[in-house]
Design brief:
The chain folds into three domains: 116 residues, Potassium Channel Kv1.1, Chain A (2-Layer Sandwich); 167 residues, no CATH class; 132 residues, Helix Hairpins, CATH 1.10.287. By secondary structure, it is mainly alpha-helical. The protein is built from 18 helices and five strands. It is elongated and about 115 Å long.
Length: 456
């Protein structure tokens, strides 16, 4: 095995049928590696051919042995990083020897694996998909799937569309109730009660006029009540038939439930106001009327039918570090520019007369909203405002760009899953026929709203 050229010892390797030669001193570049500590007794040494034989990929080994010559591991970007990392582990070469220019090629595949695991964890292991996979379903399971999973049956899909229309109709009815054309005047007795209520709270006459204009037409109230009855019954029934009550109770459902409760309390008091002469009861009615706005959280029911929204939620959930950086940096700049502008405007006649107002101005300017209700009046103030506006564009653009790239990555992976499901299971006897084959990819596709493609 050992040859000498110009008094330099040569080591010969047979890697998957391909022969490689190098100087023995070259293999000492990485002393901790397997190639630097070859043992004829333990390693696959072929005494007849006078060479070491390893059944490995010769293409990858060419980069391995070349790294000994360059004293750093380099690999092309078109090679799978996971596969090359396995080669490094086999030859006992620590990854810290990889050159910085090749880190993306080496570690990029790890990011892909983490992304796939995250998607599987978020979508594949779903209680609904588990229920759908059951052959025998009891009555509660059938009702739950009917109410919560449109893809479980055609009737469930029709119900989902119906509930979505009811939610939008209820929202539209609430909007109509704020238009003068769909409002009616209070009675004289009710106006006296409103005046008494306004006097007790020291409201102005304009406030009384606003209170007097929030009485919708009767038919609109009853129509809205019918819509909310359907939505309330649907929410309560879903809670009753749900087996995992803890998983059912989420933040949005709690907010929606609170909004419905406020609506029904306000509705009940409103239709009995003629029997009520107490200002306190009217105050309660108005308070719950305001709180009923929380029922708008029910709109998130519509987003359950849009797979892209689930990807958006996943993107924000996995972007906590970027969002933290954004909030932290934004908070620092708000304080810096707020204090600077207050100091610049302190000795001049300006509507920015305290630091809290200056901080509010800085927040509005940094977020590129720019209401214009507070503006600087000095030359120095205008310079500070210009710098604040430029910093706002830069600060917001950087983290937002990272978050958008994550969403783009997750969205692309769903397209890859859709294409990959076509070749997930190959049927040799049906090469020329299309046949749907159950697979893990298909179940994941169904869960996120993508239609599985047929397998060749």
């Amino acid at each position: 095995m050992e040859q000498f050229i110009n008094n330099k010892k040569i080591v010969r390797f047979n890697i998957g049928g391909n022969t490689f030669k190098c100087y023995e001193r070259t293999l000492s570049t990485f002393p901790e590696s397997k190639l630097a500590n070859l043992d004829k007794e333990q390693d696959s040494f072929d005494s007849e051919e006078n060479e070491y034989f390893f059944d490995r990929n010769p293409i990858l080994f060419s980069f391995i042995v070349d790294s000994f010559r360059k004293k750093a591991v380099h690999l092309p970007k078109d090679i799978c990083g996971t596969s090359f990392k396995e080669e490094l582990d086999f030859w006992e070469i620590p990854p810290h020897h990889v050159a910085p220019c090749c880190w993306e090629a080496l570690y990029g595949s790890e990011d892909v694996i983490e992304t796939v695991d995250l998607l599987n964890k978020r979508f594949k292991q779903s209680p609904i998909s588990t229920l759908r996979a059951q052959d025998k379903r009891d009555f509660r399971t059938k009702v739950w799937l009917f109410l919560e999973e449109p893809k479980s049956s055609r009737s469930a899909l029709v119900w989902s569309i119906f509930i979505s229309v009811i939610i939008l109709a209820a929202l539209f009815a609430d909007c109509l109730s704020t238009v003068k054309m769909f409002q009616e005047n209070f009675s004289e007795k009710q106006m006296k009660l409103l005046t008494k209520f306004a006097d007790a709270l020291n409201f102005k006459n304009s406030t009384i006029e606003k209170l007097a204009s929030i009485k919708p037409l009767t038919f609109l109230l009853y129509t809205n009540a019918i819509f909310h009855t359907i939505l309330t019954v649907e929410l309560v029934l879903s809670f009753v038939v749900c087996r995992n009550k803890r998983a059912f109770v989420c933040f949005m459902r709690l907010v929606s439930c609170f909004g419905y409760m406020s609506y029904w309390i306000s509705f009940t008091i409103y239709f009995n106001v003629k029997y009520i002469g107490s200002v306190n009861v009217l105050m309660i009615q108005l308070m719950f009327g305001y709180l009923s706005i929380f029922k708008i959280a029910r709109l998130f029911y519509l987003t359950k039918r849009v797979p892209a929204f689930r990807l958006i939620c996943l993107t924000f959930a996995s972007s906590k570090q970027e969002l933290t950086i954004l909030v932290f940096l934004l908070g620092i700049l708000v304080c810096v520019f707020g204090y600077t502008l207050f100091a610049a405007e302190l000795l001049h006649d300006s509507n920015i007369d305290n630091i809290f107002t200056a901080i509010y101005w800085a927040l509005i300017t940094l977020t590129t909203v720019g209401y214009g209700n507070y503006v600087p009046s000095t030359v120095v103030g205008h310079v500070v405002a210009g710098a604040c506006a430029v910093c706002g564009v830069l600060v917001i653009a950087l983290p937002v760009g990272i978050i958008v790239s994550k969403f783009y990555k997750y969205y692309n992976f769903y397209k890859y899953i859709k294409m990959h499901s076509r070749y997930k299971e190959l049927l040799p006897a049906q090469l020329k026929e299309f046949k749907t084959v159950p697979s893990e990819s298909n179940s994941l596709l169904e869960e996120v709203g993508l239609k599985p493609m047929k397998t060749i």
